Amino acid sequence: MDKNYMKLEFLSKSANESFARVVVAAFASQLDPTLEELSDIKTAVSEAVTNAIIHGYEYGEGVIIIEAFIVDNLINITIRDSGKGIKNIEEAMEPFYTSKPDLERSGMGFTVMETFMDSLVVESSEGKGTVVRMTKEIKNLSDEER
Amino acid sequence: MDKNYMKLEFLSKSANESFARVVVAAFASQLDPTLEELSDIKTAVSEAVTNAIIHGYEYGEGVIIIEAFIVDNLINITIRDSGKGIKNIEEAMEPFYTSKPDLERSGMGFTVMETFMDSLVVESSEGKGTVVRMTKEIKNLSDEER
Amino acid sequence: MFLEMEELENNLIVKLKGELDHHSSEDIRKKIDAYFSTSSTSNIVMDLNELTFMDSSGVGLIMGRYRSAQEKNGYLIIACDKERIVRILDMSGLLKIIKLYPNLDTAIRNI
Amino acid sequence: MFLEMEELENNLIVKLKGELDHHSSEDIRKKIDAYFSTSSTSNIVMDLNELTFMDSSGVGLIMGRYRSAQEKNGYLIIACDKERIVRILDMSGLLKIIKLYPNLDTAIRNI
Ligand SMILES: Nc1ncnc2c1ncn2[C@@H]1O[C@H](COP(=O)(O)OP(=O)(O)O)[C@@H](O)[C@H]1O
Ligand SMILES: Nc1ncnc2c1ncn2[C@@H]1O[C@H](COP(=O)(O)OP(=O)(O)O)[C@@H](O)[C@H]1O
User: Fold this and answer.
1) Which of A41, A138, B120, C19 is 20 to 30 A off residue C85, Cα-Cα?
2) How many other C-beta atoms lie within 10 A of the C-beta of residue B66?
3) pLDDT tier at B1 (50, 70, 90 boundaries)?
């Protein structure tokens, strides 16, 4: 795969969490990733989309936008909401930090994204929304290495 | 499923034909369709996306946009390109009509869409592009009826 | 998309597996044509029973190979009992000119 | 997402199957809580071996049920040997306070 691009918009409904995972996984599968790499991507996307629904839109109506670019064997994924935004990004990204412990959030979302992807950048502005950018290189293992 | 919406944009590459099918099928599966209904939708989407790639953009670069709405148990799918458009829509929709017999097209694309979906509307303007609108009601059969 | 080809007397047996759409049919067409054009066989038997998806691009692929066989004074027959695929073949008028058998064994016995 | 619950002596055995995310965990939580709050059992055994997906929402679900068990002076243990899920549990510090066994049989024998 030389280059490819897709953009997906959908409503901030929790039923769309699994939909978002399937879409990004189907797109990423053009790079012939291992099952492990595909699960890494699905997990990271799930975290970011869930955050947009719970924290960004606080269960209200909103649109979530996922963009994914493929260049050679790198996949670049951006997940964007126009929700309430994050005041202190550094604090938000700390393991175990959550602003919604009452909703049984673990505060591990960003940590999971960081662990499973190669890079993670979060941009946010209060009242405007949040953008999560992640990249992952797909190793393209030969069949024996899998 | 009360109401849901998604919009997908992607490049007019033939490798994205199967990607588009997976995305629409994953979205439609929220209505709990039978395998048969899901295949109907996948086939119709495949025809419209293939047409955008071959006829709309004539294998050149372009963006294809799919929108899907769910309202109760109806799914409404729109596939749009900004390609060369269709001069005579009536003729184009006739079974066996193809402008590209040399490419081994059968001229059956629109007929397949009409057969597998409940409704099909095609809008097009030369030099601007084509919009294909299709709907299908998902019967929500009980387990015994499947 | 997988493709298996095998010669049996005067017949080229072509087994298709997976999803046959416009994208995959381009590659399949080239492979069949490359094989068939240099093979001494003149008939083609297409086994579609392991396809999990086919749209009208499949019809174009089959029509094209039907013509290649005709050019060698041979013919093409299809092995398929998947309802959905048979429906598309029927809709396209292919079954008026091409013989259909439910499976490869029956197709071969009736060549 | 499927859920199976069964009482075994003082333990509520909870088997989760499918994809455990924020969406499915809401439903699962309600069902476990409704059962456990009226049950005479005080421990929870969570079998995660048939999960095909879990993200950090699963961690929240498990932490919450761990607390419910504590409130009944019981405890929660996990049966799981899926590497990816164990990794998320470990990352979240859950394995410092919750015992993990590779499968349900071993978990039950060691309650
Ligand atoms: N899209 C978002 N919009 C607003 N706030 C967010 C968003 N994503 C994350 N946050 C903030 O960052 C915190 C940490 O996020 P995360 O690590 O995913 O943990 P959790 O979702 O379990 O709270 C959240 O509790 C929330 O305050
Ligand atoms: N998106 C499109 N843009 C431009 N022309 C189109 C488009 N879709 C269909 N057409 C025209 O309509 C004709 C019939 O389409 P179809 O029934 O799908 O058959 P086929 O794709 O096999 O040609 C095409 O040959 C083409 O001329």
Assistant:
1) B120
2) 23
3) low
